[in-house]
Amino acid sequence: VHLERDFYAPGATDGYVPTPAAVSALRRIVSGVQTPAARAFTLTGAYGSGKSAFALVLAKALSAAPWGDPALRRLAESEHGSALFDADTGLFPVLIVGGREPVGSALING
Known about the structure:
5 helices; 42% helix; mainly alpha; single chain
């Protein structure tokens, strides 16, 4: 998974299988984004544990038009994902990945 490239690729999340832990994390993050308070999130895990795939699903879920993505529709309609997303709101994602450059440069390039 390459977040910056795959965000715009149709079907990039088709194979994503949300675990109960992933749905729980999505709920916490979506709730935090909707609450007007200071917030920060960290996502840690071992190499190959699905952090980038989760970030891709999260970015699409919080974007202005997530419902064009079949995987997100399935997630929202699933037993674990019901009432997870608010279809009336959306954010404009700025996709950046870690690298050896200042954060300002990464934001401009994102």
